[in-house]
Automatic annotation (TrEMBL):
It comes from Cinnamomum micranthum f. kanehirae. Keywords: Copper, Disulfide bond, Electron transport, Glycoprotein, Membrane, Metal-binding, Signal, Transmembrane, Transmembrane helix, Transport. It is a single-pass type I membrane protein. It is found in: Membrane. This is Mavicyanin-like protein. One of its GO terms (molecular function) is metal ion binding. The lineage of its organism: Eukaryota, Viridiplantae, Streptophyta, Embryophyta, Tracheophyta.
Length: 138
């Protein structure tokens, strides 16, 4: 009986393992961080963003903010309510769903001049290896 429980636990771990091994942390802007006068489109161009990955926005506290917005708000720099701003200077966003994601700074005209905006495409984890079949059969 105990061996069946061990197999069940191992099967669950194998099923979860691919998702956890794909989780990657991206420091937005790398050593430049979240700042003005940086090309975030170029920064993101060679990266693969997957569900489960994390975006880390490093910036001096009180100098910048991060808003997660929709495509229209991104294009037109429509700022959400201030209460939705991430402002701790080390903000982390976990990418929970696939699709297009948009972020910009809500301080001053940082997004309006186009220098502090990030648009990415997040892929599902469906390319991960399939979990091992259950030792108990279907």
């Amino acid at each position: 009986m105990a061996s069946k429980q061990v197999y069940a636990i191992l099967a669950m771990m194998v099923a979860v393992l691919p998702a956890t091994t794909l989780a990657k942390v991206f420091v937005v802007g790398d050593e430049h961080g979240w700042t003005i006068n940086f090309d975030y489109k170029l920064w993101a161009a060679d990266k693969d963003f997957w569900v489960g990955a994390k975006l880390v926005f490093h910036d001096p506290v009180g100098v910048h903010s991060v808003f997660k917005v929709n495509g229209t708000a991104f294009q037109e720099c429509i700022k959400p309510p201030p209460s939705e701003a991430l402002i701790c200077g080390n903000d982390i966003i976990t990418l929970l769903t696939r699709g297009l994601k948009w972020y910009f700074c809500g301080v001053g005209k940082h997004s309006e001049v186009g220098s502090q905006k990030l648009a990415i495409s997040v892929q599902s984890i469906s390319r991960a290896p399939a979990p091992a079949p259950s030792p108990f059969g279907a």
